Here is the input.
Amino acid sequence: MNIRATSAGGPPARWLAGCILLDVAHRTIHPGAAFLTLIAVAAAACHSINPPPLVQPGAPGRASHVVTAERAVDLGSSRATAADVAFMQEMIGHHAQAVEMVALLNARTTREDMRLLGLKIEVSQSDEIRMMQRWLEARGQPLPGPHAHHGEGTTLMPGMLTPAEMAALAEARGPAFDRLFLEGMIKHHEGALTMVKQLLATPGAAQEPDVFAFASEVDADQRMEIDRMRAMLASGSGGS
Here is the structure.
């Protein structure tokens, strides 16, 4: 999990200046009385001002909080949990269906804004699929097959379209397709937000920096795309 320093606990600029002056003073061969006073002031500044605290960013929608140096080291060396692995494996299938939905788009819409939206989703989610695959491989975890989410009896992840909904989308054309696509992708994205929420609510999960960063990005990016698609529906871009 990302840890950063902040100046909330003291004026680091003054602390640094004091330490620099102290270093310069120690390098002076024959300091006078006035300069010895400066040494004393610099030493006091160097030792009396605490270093800035370490702040752990909160999960999406949650406040950040200060952690100790020992806790920061623990977080930096956190290992992936079973929940982290399951999240990555399941999100691969979730993203794969979004890419499949986009593949239907170019031959069925007449709107340029729909094509641009589809391109953005395709590029970002395809890149994320490759990232998740690398993450799993690096930890010796099995990769789901490219069509695992199509398997008979497979439990669909939150927000994923059913086979009947995918068939209806494939049969639609023009404005009817646009409306079904936007409604379906909004539902799909909301499901991804649910998956992130479930991960973050699992004790010990999402402590590994890569997992936390990815889950946070999914939450932020898909919320923005949901807002964009809702605006397209409201404006008639996906109207019937």
In short: Residues 82-235 form a domain with the Ferritin fold (CATH 1.20.1260.10). The two ends are 45 Å apart (CA to CA). The longest strand covers residues 54-56.
